[in-house]
Design goal:
The protein is an alpha+beta fold. Helices cover about 50% and strands about 10% of the residues. It has a single domain, classed as Cytochrome p450 (Orthogonal Bundle), CATH 1.10.630.10. The chain is built from 18 helices and ten strands. A five-stranded mixed β-sheet has the order 1-2-8-5-3. The protein has a three-stranded antiparallel β-sheet with strand order 4-10-9. A hairpin with a 2-residue loop joins strand 6 and strand 7. The chain is globular, with a radius of gyration of 21 Å.
Length: about 400
């Protein structure tokens, strides 16, 4: 007799034996082998460890993300909305469009470039000034993180000196979302952090030349609704962009032949960034909830089920990318990865994120000759939802 509980015929575990073996540990540390097996054998699989479905094929991932009627973010279990209120990230249909529309213009490529190109270059130079002479640094904490935070402060109309406050509010909001996701109550710290952010943003919204002011002026949203969406910008733009820059650096350090071409040709650097986003998208998954019973590949999804899309898995689908595990910046259509999602919730900050990564990496490569990994402290990308290297120690020849 097996020593585990019997599985009923209608039980998804019976139909998805591979999914039944998946552990959170595996998904967090080395997800690629198991995701490849799932994609081949159970492309929509019931994963008991997630208490939900996991979608791993590229075409199915796109189908789920595009069909917001059947697979919604608008569900009470979506914890971010419980902390910051309804926003573009938690709404669908007309309400979603209403919350997103005011931010569309300020986040278009030209507007992003006019507002942030110079700031990104200045910030990158300033950060590098702080460690260039040392010949070594931990580049996630010393560079990728502070660059993302500094540009986000600019996005919200805050001064450089206010970055620590902004990060405190951010931490408070993230901690509250984590607490609620784990089944707890909204902690006072989360409520206070969100209130403090709102108080500070009042002043910015009054200034129409600021990004938030432009959004507020062009909007029928109330001030609290603008603040909720601004909190989502903060939520969406700090950890992911830090991860995007850090992961691209890891891929460059692991592939030293790519460093010189990327240093000398901006097109190559762009392709390196896209290839890194494909191999290790900083936001590894997006979650949806089924609004209706639906058949997805061999899965009978029930209304209310969690449907988690693995962007990480879709980005290595061999049906779309030849030799999907190889780092190949020269591959055709470098932007066909799903790192910024697709459908109505496609990342609003995509142009700003690319600008930050391109400027940050170009400046690093320019300033740090013979950039190489520290052989004693290899960088490893990890994470279940957000993936990045906890430590990214690098060396170079100091001036
Ligand atoms: C400047 C930096 C960024 C900002 C301001 C930003 C902002 C946003 C916002 C506001 C949304 C919600 C859009 C909506 O629901 O209509 C979003 C969605 C998303 N962003 Fe970004 N983002 C940034 C960087 C990134 C980066 C670097 C990545 C990954 C590499 C990323 C991945 C995503 C994904 C996957 C979604 C879809 C979420 C979902 O559908 O559930 N973002 N972003």
């Amino acid at each position: 007799m097996a020593d585990h509980a019997p599985v009923s015929p209608g039980d998804p575990q019976a139909k998805f034996p591979l999914g039944a073996t998946v552990t959170l540990e595996q998904l967090e540390h080395n997800p690629h082998p198991i995701l490849a097996r799932l994609r081949a054998d159970e492309p929509v699989s019931w994963i008991p460890a997630l208490d939900g479905w996991l979608v791993t094929r590229h075409d199915l991932a796109v189908a789920v993300m595009r069909d917001s009627r059947a697979f919604t973010v608008d569900d009470p279990r979506f914890s971010t909305a419980q902390v910051v209120g309804p926003s573009m990230l938690s709404l669908e249909g007309e309400l979603h469009a209403r919350h997103r529309a005011p931010f569309a213009a300020p986040f278009r490529p030209r507007s992003v470039s006019e507002r942030f190109a110079e700031a990104a270059a200045t910030d990158a130079e300033r950060l590098i000034d702080g460690f260039a002479a040392a010949g070594t640094a931990e580049l996630r904490r010393a560079f990728a993180g502070p660059l993302a935070a500094s540009i986000m402060a600019g996005t919200l109309g805050l001064e450089q000196g206010e970055v620590p406050d902004m990060l405190t509010w951010y931490d408070g909001i993230v901690a509250a979302v984590t607490e609620i996701t784990a089944g707890g109550e909204l902690p006072a710290r989360g409520r206070e952090a969100f209130a403090a952010l709102g108080n500070r943003l009042q002043a910015t919204m009054a200034d129409e030349s600021s990004l938030l002011g432009a959004a507020a002026a062009d909007s029928d949203l109330s001030e609290p609704q603008i603040v909720s969406n601004a909190a989502i910008l903060l939520f969406g733009g700090i950890e992911t962009t830090e991860g995007m820059i850090a992961n691209a650096l890891v891929h460059l350090l692991e592939n030293p032949d790519a460093i010189d071409p990327a240093r000398h040709e901006s097109k190559v650097l762009d392709d390196v960034i896209e290839e890194s986003l494909r191999l290790e998208p900083a936001a590894a998954v997006v979650d949806r909830y089924a609004t209706t019973d639906a058949n997805l590949a061999q899965a009978s999804v029930k209304r209310g089920d969690l449907v988690r899309v693995s962007i990480t898995a879709a980005n290595r689908d061999p049906a779309v990318f030849a030799e999907p595990d190889a780092f190949d910046p020269a591959r055709p259509r470098p932007r066909s990865h799903l790192a910024f999602a697709q459908g109505p919730h496609v990342c609003l900050g995509v142009h700003l994120a690319r600008l930050e990564a391109r400027t940050g990496l170009a400046t690093l490569l320019d300033r740090l000759p013979n950039l190489r990994p520290d052989p004693d402290r290899p960088a490893r990308i990890k994470g279940l939802v957000f993936r990045k290297p906890p430590v990214l120690q690098a060396k170079w020849d100091p001036p």
